[in-house]
């Protein structure tokens, strides 16, 4: 069986080979001042690990462990900061125990035990958080921390073909979910970049953004109802296509990041697998022209499934261009009808804004294609679009390779209304460049792409790659991260569009949310999690009650 990497993304043996890493170092080493030296991850046996502070009771031992590899593997998510610390052998806040319940009864027993003794509980799906969302850094007021891995709850329990919905356990990872839906001719069609190693519960808890660049794309849009196990009991919402009955209970748990309980099941809205696709790549002289074309597409009602704009630098890094032009990847898909008319109208719109279809690479690609059986990943086409797709799916492995070569590689994603985009883009780019100089990484560069587009705004995604100074990587990261985050908030953006809040974004999230809403959230947590054991430090802080006390 494949084994997940404990220190970086994905599975052991499936990242870049040493030869590929060397080639990457040769390609970027000169620009970044890297010498090509590769840092290898340490052996788990050599890592200094604090001993567990408690032992599991007999009733939990069949599915709860203090195994060294399990504790190390659940100590971090997969952010740049996490990978750097792991490569240095620094595992600072490991869970004392890792529990992997096989059904809700066992999960309930863990929650009861932890509540009784005041142990922190860290819900863990696929562990792909890039914002410190699964790190058991819970402070000194907790006598221990238990990571609850729900990966054993991984089945599609029921399919309703007439409603095109399914009841699914939330520990299932993306590929396994699609494998179980495929025999029914259905798909969730939710493909974040973390698809390979992230779970349905994680998507729901973090309000993940998925495959569709326009239209219904956040996991919010795909949830029909939820079942949540909280320390105070079970919350199960009603299956409905829509309801006007007061504030939606589902919305309380969407984006709750494990602070209110563990999402165990969900009824999800599905669709038939796509049979027709159309699309291609378009080049623009400037990124600004491309942005105007994306706005026109988002406001046209055409609802392209893919509408990713890469600035010249981003296109170059991803092999989708030569660095002289911005590249827009546009795609349409349908399970019901051919798409010639949609593709033709899209071509007209992008041409109106200076877009040029590369006829040599895309001859005939704007005509509809039929794909028997559809696919399980974002659509791929020839040329620039296929290069982008391939780079997108391998992005996390490439990031890890860059870190091993001594580079800092971080991303900042946000969303803003169209009227604010130009100022936000300029401000964030400028702030990052200034911060790179301030932290001694002036050779670094920042690029931008659009991940999602809406009629009223856009989601820019910034990537920064720079030389990291050995021993000061985290200080450099903090300087750049802070500068970018401050610029985002100052220009009307959100601190996160789809990466969640976690611990890394808390300072800016606290400033973004309304104060009265924060007070309401604290009260909700006090009712559902009276001992304040669920993912402490994430989203909101509450005063801990004495052990044995109850919610009002």
Please sum up the structure shown.
The protein has 552 residues and is an alpha+beta fold. The chain has helices at 18-32, 68-73, 80-87, 104-117, 174-181, 200-206, 249-253, 287-298, 312-317, 340-352, 359-362, 383-404, 418-438, 473-490, 506-512, 515-528, and strands at 64-65, 97-99, 120-124, 145-149, 156-160, 165-169, 186-187, 223-230, 233-236, 262-269, 271-272, 276-284, 306-310, 326-334, 356-357, 369-370, 407-413, 416-417, 445-454, 457-467. The strands form five sheets. The protein has a five-stranded antiparallel beta sheet with strand order 5-6-10-8-9.
Count of helical regions: 16
Which strand order does the major sheet show?
5-6-10-8-9
The profile of the biggest β sheet is: 5 strands, antiparallel
Tell me the total number of β-strands.
Answer: 20
Q: Name the helicity range.
A: 25-40%
| Overall tally of structural domains | 4
- Report the CATH topology name of the largest domain: Uridine Diphospho-n-acetylenolpyruvylglucosamine Reductase, domain 3
